[in-house]
Design a protein that fits this description.
Layout (H helix, E strand, L loop, with lengths): L1 H14 L58 H15 L11 E2 L23 E7 L4 E3 L7 E2 L2 E2 L18 E2 L2 E8 L15 H6 L34 H13 L45 H13 L10 H12 L10 E3 L2 E3 L7 E3 L26 E3 L21 H6 L6 H9 L2 H12 L2
Length: 444
C-alpha cells in the first residue's frame, strides 16, 4: 500500500503541470515602500572571469533508444526500472493472462529495435467491428474492437498452444469491418501529456478555414482530448497502458488514477459524448481473480511508458540541413510541426497530434474516438490518422499505421487526401532534393 501511495504522488506530481495551459500566475507587485530584502549569500564573484566561452564544451549526454529520460528524479528512475521489468515479463495463464490474447508480454509487440519500440510486420493485429453507418459493435463476445488471435470466448480454460482464431466475414446480415495495426513506438510519449489542449487546438482547422486543403482536427476518448494512438484516440498514458493490457493480453486492472490522470481536464468542450470511463475496472471470465495486476506493478508500468526518453537527434550533415529546408518548403511542416510547446519546454516530435484524412488508399474501416465537429469530415474517423511523430523515425520501420510501407520514401509516396499536394510536390523534386529530405528524416 505504501508503494502504491508513493507512486500515486510521483505520477500526480509529474502530471499536474500538464493540467494547465502551461502559464504561471502574475508576479506579485512590488511597490517603492516595500522593504528591500537582504542579498542572498552566495559565492564571491570571480574577479578575473574568463571572457571567452569554453571553446570545446562537453557534448550533450548520449541518450539511447529505450533509455529513461535524463531529467528524472531518483524515485522516478527507480519506478521506471521496476516498470521495465513488468514490461519485459512474460505472463502465464496462471497469472491471469487470457482467456483472449494476442501477446504474452508488452515486449511482444514493442520490441523493435529495443523494448518500448514498434514491431515487425508479423506482429500486426486486427481491429474489427460490425454494423452500418448508424451504429457499430464489437464482434460477439469481445470486449473491444481488438481481435484476439488466441483463446476462446466459450472455453476460458486454454493453453498457449491453442490454435489461432479465425475472424468471420459477417455477423448476421452485417459485414465485418476490419483493419490491421502495427504497434506504435512509445519513445517520448509521456511528453505529450505535458502539451495542453489549448496548444493542440490552436493548430486544428476542422473546417479548413484557411483554404489550404488541410483540415486537421482533434480526437477524444470521451474523457479528454486525445494525444496517443494511431487515431489520437487516447488522452493519457494510464488509459493507453490499461487498454492493451486487457485487449492484447487479457490482464485485468483497477484504475490507478482514473479520471485523475486526465490531461488538461475541462478544456474539451467540443466532446459530444463519452466513449469510455477511466474509472471502470477491467474484468474477464477466467479462473484468476480480478484485478490480475497489482496496483503497484501497474503504477510502475505507467512510469516506464511515461518516462521513456524521446529519440535523440543526430548531428546534421550538410545534406540533412538542406533536407530540413526542403521539408518545410514543400509544406510537410503544416502537419509535422517541428515542436509543440509544453509545460517543460518545446517537444520536438514533428507532429500536431491531430487527425487528418489521408485519402481513400489509406482509409480504414473502423472508427475510434469522438472527433472534433467538422463541416468537411464525418462524425467518425475511419479515413483519418494521427500525424505520426517523426522523432527517431528511421529506427522504427515498417511505416504507416499498418506497416504497409517498407521505406520512408514509400511512406511519403503513400500520403493522399489532405497531404496529396505535398506528396505530389515531393515526387516532383529532383532526386537529389528527395534524398536530402530522407537524409534529414534519418537524422531525427
Amino acid at each position: 500500500m505504501n508503494r502504491v501511495l508513493f507512486l500515486l504522488g510521483l505520477l500526480l506530481a509529474f502530471a499536474l503541470p500538464a493540467c494547465s495551459s502551461g502559464s504561471s500566475g502574475p508576479a506579485p507587485e512590488v511597490t517603492p515602500d516595500d522593504p528591500v530584502p537582504d542579498p542572498v549569500p552566495g559565492p564571491v564573484p570571480d574577479p578575473d572571469p574568463d571572457p571567452d566561452p569554453d571553446p570545446d564544451p562537453d557534448p550533450l549526454p548520449v541518450v539511447n533508444l529505450g533509455d529513461p529520460r535524463p531529467d528524472l528524479t531518483a524515485d522516478q528512475l527507480a519506478a521506471f526500472q521496476r516498470g521495465r521489468e513488468v514490461f519485459l515479463k512474460r505472463f502465464k495463464p496462471s497469472e491471469g493472462m487470457g482467456p483472449l490474447y494476442n501477446a504474452t508480454s508488452c515486449k511482444s509487440c514493442h520490441s523493435a529495435p529495443v523494448p518500448g519500440g514498434g514491431s515487425d510486420l508479423y506482429r500486426n493485429f486486427y481491429v474489427a467491428q460490425y454494423g452500418n453507418e448508424f451504429f457499430a459493435s464489437n464482434l460477439p463476445g469481445l470486449p473491444s474492437p481488438v481481435v484476439p488471435a488466441f483463446g476462446s470466448v466459450s472455453n476460458p480454460e486454454f493453453t498457449l498452444e491453442g490454435g489461432r482464431r479465425s475472424m468471420p466475414d459477417n455477423v448476421g446480415i452485417f459485414e465485418v469491418m476490419a483493419d490491421q495495426r502495427n504497434a506504435i513506438p512509445m519513445f517520448g510519449v509521456g511528453l505529450f501529456e505535458l502539451i495542453s489542449d489549448t496548444t493542440i487546438l490552436a493548430n486544428s482547422d476542422p473546417d479548413d478555414a484557411n483554404g489550404d486543403g488541410i483540415s486537421g482536427r482533434a480526437n477524444s476518448d470521451g474523457a479528454g482530448l486525445g494525444r496517443l494512438g494511431s487515431k489520437a484516440q487516447s488522452n493519457n498514458i494510464e488509459l493507453f497502458t490499461r487498454a492493451p493490457l486487457f485487449n492484447q493480453m487479457g490482464i485485468t486492472t483497477l484504475p490507478f488514477l482514473g479520471t485523475g490522470a486526465t490531461v488538461s481536464a475541462g478544456h474539451t468542450a467540443f466532446i459530444a459524448q463519452a466513449s469510455g470511463n477511466p474509472n471502470d475496472p477491467t474484468t474477464d471470465f477466467d479462473a484468476v481473480p480480478d484485478p490480475e495486476m497489482a496496483a503497484s506493478d501497474l503504477g510502475d508500468l505507467i512510469a516506464f511508458s511515461r518516462f521513456l526518453a524521446p529519440p535523440q537527434k543526430k548531428g546534421f550533415n550538410e545534406a540533412a540541413v538542406r533536407g530540413e529546408v526542403e521539408f518545410a518548403n514543400i509544406g510537410c511542416v503544416k502537419c509535422h510541426i517541428p515542436a509543440l510547446e509544453s509545460s517543460q519546454g518545446p517537444v520536438e516530435a514533428y507532429t500536431d497530434l491531430l487527425i487528418h484524412d489521408m485519402g481513400p488508399e489509406l482509409a480504414g474501416k473502423v472508427s475510434f474516438g469522438v472527433p472534433q465537429a467538422s463541416a468537411t469530415d464525418p462524425d467518425t474517423t475511419e479515413a483519418e490518422w494521427r500525424t505520426a511523430p517523426l522523432w527517431g523515425v528511421s529506427h522504427i520501420g515498417p511505416w504507416m499505421h499498418d506497416g504497409r510501407a517498407s521505406s520512408l520514401d514509400e511512406a511519403i509516396r503513400m500520403h493522399g487526401g489532405e497531404a496529396q499536394a505535398i506528396r505530389d510536390a515531393y515526387i516532383a523534386l529532383p532526386e537529389t532534393a528527395r534524398f536530402e529530405i530522407l537524409e534529414f528524416l534519418r537524422h531525427l
